[in-house]
Amino acid sequence: MTSSPVKAQAAGTDGRAALKQFTRALGVAIVLLVIWRVTTVGLAEGYPVSFWISQALNGLVLGGVYALVALGYTLVYGILFMINFAHGEVMMIGGITGFFALQFAQARGWMEGPWPVVVVALLLIMFVGMAASVVIGVTLERLAYRPLRQAPRLVPLISAIGASLFLQYSVLLIFGVSPHSYRKPALISGGLRLGDVFIPYTGAIIFVTSILLMLALFFIIQRTKLGRAMRAVAEDRSTASLMGVDVNAVIVVTFMLGSALAGAAGVMLGFHNTVVKFNSGFIPGLKAFTAAVLGGIGNIPGAMFGALILGLIEAIGPSALGIPTEYKDVIAFTLLVLILIFRPTGLFGEVLSEKKA
Amino acid sequence: MLTLESVHTYYGHIHALKGISLTVNEGEIVTLIGSNGAGKTTTLNTISGVLSARAGAIYLQEGDHSRRSPSAGGEHDLRLDRLPAHEVARLGVSQSPEGRKIFARLSVRENLAMGAFARTDRDGISGDLDRVLELFPRLQERLSQPGGTLSGGEQQMLAIGRALMSSPRILLLDEPSMGLAPILVQQIFQIIREINAQGTTILLVEQNAQAALQVANRGYVLETGNIVLSGAARDLLADPQVAEAYLGI
After folding, report:
1. Nearest by CB: B97 against A231, A239, A247
2. Chain B within 8 Å of A247 (Cβ-Cβ)?
3. Is the pLDDT confidence value at A239 over 60?
4. Is pLDDT of B76 > 70?
5. What pLDDT score was predicted for residue A356?
6. Is the CB of B86 less than 8 angstroms away from the CB of A228?
7. What is the mean pLDDT of residues B157-183?
8. What's the farthest any 2 CA atoms get from each other in chain A?
9. Residue A356's CB: how many other CB atoms inside 10 A?
10. Which residue of chain A comes nearest to B48, CA vs CA?
11. Is position A21 within any domain?
12. B11-40: per-residue pLDDT in tens?
């Protein structure tokens, strides 16, 4: 009598073990396939070293942008244990708003002015994009997430996906399907040539700006009273409130910081890709999420390094594997699958395992 | 100084506090004793605003320095039971929670700084830091270590020290002796006495009734959400009912 449920349970664990073995085998197969392609095809093409360096530099630029967005995912996850799937749209709205700010500046001829004017105008454009993203991010928190704070964990996730679609199609409705194109000012449209390696100014500016913003965030989190409160809330909300910390205020500030970085990324991605439209936050958003998972979600340095690694892999991957660059998204998301199979806590993470998972 | 008037608290449908009334006077150590599940921690959490009372009232006498929150009503007493936890904390009610609740990934120094979160008086904060380190010299050596790496006893010291860093008018201590070696228990109770002698009012929740009643001025005995007995600590120690149920005699 009693043996049958036990047997059923055994069969269940057997099934699960088999599935786990299967996914592991699949993962190993993918890794072997990648190694085979790289050695037999990618390296056999015989690209010059300068080509690889150029690709790697492109990767770092892209990685810098991903890092800014990935930090938003990781900050919010660290505090609320939810994935803000609308974060890519927060970035896109920064990009769209930045486009209009750029248009405004161009109409006034600031972009053709002397270089200090151009620099100030560019900073203002980025600031406007960041401000727009902050408004959207904070509104999202207030309307879509806070009312669900006590709900089961899947519920805010669904709300986030809904918010993502809502934002995309609102932008589509207001600004149309056609892409808005960012026109670079002459000042930053050239590049630097070092031997055979060409470094576009925009790329260099994007990379440096990303690093500066990340350092600023790191400083805020590690060295200020606000950052200490954020870390305390991330560890234990109710104990933090016993210390006099207004937890809701800290959560709002977290969304503001994450959104500001996303807004900056949106504007910079606008200059990098030269276009923005209603869905241009979607794929980069997922990539940044991948980067955050790669580094170990909830882990701030993890998000930064995960994003840089992802950027590099995406830039070098297609040539190394000998496949068209259009497939770079496949590479990124295959990587996501591999991490989830082999190291679900990410490269730098054990944060997950402690209490949140 | 702190008054509870027939406070009722619920966890969902579970009626955890069934009309608790108690008073803590300025300068006293008052202890709340009782067995597991009697509602001791619930009482402290209701005072500090982590839980909200469904009925009844909690009053805190207004302090001399006006740290008054605008949303608290009353003429001379501030009503705590309508305030969120962070505002209660800012009024000078500080809790060292059950299970210590150290921020494991923050350093010891940062944990102590969190205790002083609501304060802006730099000199006062550094003075209190010195005082806490004097009370707990062990913490001095571990200032830059993550809180999670401390031993249980050290974590308890850190929890009390952190609560003291807010320069509280009243200190709520929840099971400070739990899980500690007997020698450490003695030390902790000695320190509680010292803190009180320095002028901090204390409400102490304990399962170790013997030790608690020895340091306290007065005590309340809690049973399934009701106060069944109260009086001078000395009398409670001598009470045969208490002796049988809580002192293990």
Report:
1. A239
2. yes
3. yes
4. no
5. 40
6. no
7. 93
8. 88
9. 13
10. A242
11. no
12. 989 999 999 999 999 999 999 998 888 999
CA distance A51 to A28: 29
Under a CB-based contact definition with an 8 Å cutoff, are residues B18 and B43 in contact? no
Q: Is residue A20 domain-resident?
A: no
Interface predicted TM-score (ipTM) of this complex, two decimals: 0.90
| A243 near B CB under 8 A | yes
CB A312 within 8 A of CB A62: no
Nearest Cα to A65, choosing from A276, A289, A269, A327?
A: A269
Alpha-carbon span A288 to A302, nearest angstrom = 12
A226 min Cα distance to partner chain B (Å): 9
| Cβ B49 vs Cβ B237: under 8 Å | no
**If interface means Cβ-Cβ distance under 8 Å, which residues of chain B face chain A?**
48-50, 84-86, 89-90, 94-95, 97, 101, 103-106, 110, 113-115, 117-118, 162, 166
Cβ contact, residue pair A241, B105, below 8 Å? no
CATH no. for B1-92+171-249: 3.40.50.300
Question: A264: which strand partners?
Answer: none
CATH code, A127: 1.10.3470
Ranges in chain B annotated CATH 3.40.50.300? 1-92+171-249
Distance CA A226, CA A214 (A): 16
Q: Is residue A11 part of a domain?
A: no
Note whether residue A26 is domain-resident. Answer: no
The boundaries of the domain holding residue A159 are: 47-355
Domain count of the fold of chain A: 1
* pLDDT value at residue A47: 82
CB contact under 8 A, B118 and A247: no
Q: What is the mean pLDDT of chain A?
A: 89
Which among B51, B114, B164 is the top mutation candidate for probing chain A, defined by the most A β-carbons within 10 Å of its own β-carbon? B114
